[in-house]
Write a structure and sequence with these properties.
The chain has seven helices and 17 strands. The protein is of the alpha+beta class. The strands form four sheets. Strands 1, 2, 3, 4, 5, 6 and 17 form a seven-stranded mixed sheet that branches.
């Protein structure tokens, strides 16, 4: 078995304080035997509206985020899924950043980058009411799966959880576990968070590592917490309702293989990308 960690935070607008908190939580994960840890969405800069300025500083090599991330992974000997960071699209020097989830190996090298595909533009029945991520971020353009010491990892972020086709595509690309760093609102989280995370695990027969923000943030904004590690049968292995936390669980690859063998849903799949055709008019 191999051990993984999901980290729940209550990040604020102070980048230095957030990074210090994240480093302490990552150290707990490493001390607990985790080989890979997942930080939540916006772990370093929750509630800030100057995402483009932060991204530009990182592109110039003047920002604190990437050096901190590389050093944390190297010093702790830990693979890290760095929630999301504001990073400019590859090859661009300005404009809107992407909400980028980086996978960094235990030597501090960037092993993969996933730019969030689905941006949260929605009306929510909470104190803030209106969310438009597309005002501050650019959409990603591709799915990402990468090899890690704990298995083949698919990367997703938060609102992606509502789009089952992304997770099916990750499974088809060989994913064995999927990260979902998030900042689900308290209102939408109470309604849908756990059922979405568990459903994505069940339909892909993957471990889901769902690291959520869990508390009050600038904005004002309240996030739901209830970070989860879910097994390929859809059973929660660890959960924390609110506040900072480090969740640990062991991945049982033999159990996962047995589930996939007994119920080979991927082999039974009839509808794949590009195969669904509309009904002809006489049957519509």
């Amino acid at each position: 078995m191999t051990r993984v960690a999901v980290i729940q935070m209550v990040s604020q607008s102070d980048v230095a304080a957030n990074l210090a908190s994240a480093r302490a939580l990552l150290a707990q994960a490493a001390a607990g035997g985790a080989r890979l840890a997942v930080l939540p969405e916006n772990f370093a800069a929750m509630g800030r509206r100057d995402q483009a300025l932060l991204a530009a500083a990182e592109a110039r090599g003047e920002g604190p985020l990437l050096p901190w991330l590389r050093a944390a992974a190297r010093d702790l000997g830990l693979w890290i899924v760095a929630g999301t960071l504001p990073l400019l699209p590859p090859g661009q020097q300005g404009g809107k950043p992407c909400a980028s989830s980086l996978l960094v190996d235990d030597e501090g090298r960037i092993a993969a980058r996933y730019d969030k595909l689905h941006l949260f533009d929605a009306e929510v029945a909470d104190s803030r009411g209106h969310y438009r991520e597309s005002d501050d971020f650019a959409h990603g353009e591709r799915i990402v799966v990468a090899d890690t010491p704990v298995g083949r990892l698919g990367l997703t972020v938060c609102y992606d959880l509502r789009f089952a086709e992304l997770y099916v595509a990750l499974r088809a690309a060989g994913a064995e576990l999927i990260s979902a760093p998030s900042a689900f609102t308290a209102a939408t989280g109470a309604a849908h968070w756990e059922v979405l995370v568990r459903a994505r695990a069940i339909e892909t027969q993957c471990y889901l590592l769902a690291a959520n923000q869990g508390g009050l943030h600038p904005g004002p904004r309240e996030t739901y917490g209830h970070s989860l590690i879910v097994d390929p049968w859809g059973l929660p292995l660890a959960c924390r309702a609110s506040g900072e936390a480090v969740l640990l669980a062991d991945l049982d690859r033999s159990q996962q293989a047995a589930i996939r063998q007994r119920m080979p849903v991927d082999a039974h799949r009839r509808l794949r990308s590009g195969t669904l055709q509309p009904l002809s008019k006489e049957y519509a």
